[in-house]
Amino acid sequence: MTIEWVNETLVREFVFLGFSSLAGLQRLLYIVFLLIYLFTLGTNAIIISTIVLDRPLHTPMYFFLAVLFCFETCYTFILVPKMLVDLLTQKKIISFLGCSIQMFSFLLLGCSHSFLLAVMGYDRYVAICNPLRYTVLMGYGVCVGLVAAACACGFTVSLVTTSLVFHLPFHSSNQLHHFFCDIYPVLKLASHHSRFIQLVIFMLGVFALIIPLLLILVSYIRIISAILKISSSVGRYKAFSTCASHLIVVTVHYGCASFIYLRPKSNYSSSQDTLISVSYTILTPLFNLMVYSLRNKEFKSAVQRTMAQTSYPVN
Question: Which of 9, 169, 172, 180 lies most in the core, judged by the most C-beta atoms within 10 Å?
Answer without folding.
Answer: 180
